[in-house]
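Structure in, sequence out. Go:
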C-alpha cells in the first residue's frame, strides 16, 4: 500500500475554486486529512490531500489528479509525492503515520 501527498495550487483562483477542487478530490477518494497511527484525523494544510492506493504509481496519481482537478479548475498546479513515512506537527500536537 502506498501513501501519496497531493498538493494543488489554483493560480489566480478564489477560495470557491479551492473548495470545488477539494470537493472533487474528496468525492474521488483523496482526503484533506491524514490519519495517524493512533487513529487521530489531522487536517492537512490548505491545498494538500492524502491518497492511499494499493497499486498506483506516483505518475498515475498525478495523471488521475490532473483529470479530476481539470474538471473544476483547469490549469491548476499539481504536485504529487509518494511517502515512505510521514510525521507532522500541527502546533497543538504531533502525529505519525
Amino acid at each position: 500500500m502506498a501513501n501519496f501527498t497531493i498538493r494543488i495550487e489554483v493560480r489566480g483562483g478564489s477560495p470557491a475554486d479551492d473548495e470545488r477542487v477539494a470537493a472533487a478530490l474528496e468525492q474521488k477518494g483523496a482526503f484533506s486529512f491524514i490519519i495517524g497511527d493512533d487513529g487521530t484525523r489531522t487536517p492537512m494544510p490548505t491545498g494538500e490531500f492524502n491518497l492511499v492506493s494499493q497499486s498506483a504509481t506516483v505518475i498515475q496519481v498525478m495523471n488521475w489528479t490532473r483529470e479530476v482537478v481539470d474538471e473544476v479548475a483547469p490549469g491548476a498546479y499539481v504536485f504529487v509525492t509518494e511517502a515512505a513515512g510521514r510525521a507532522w506537527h500541527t502546533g497543538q500536537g504531533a502525529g505519525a503515520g
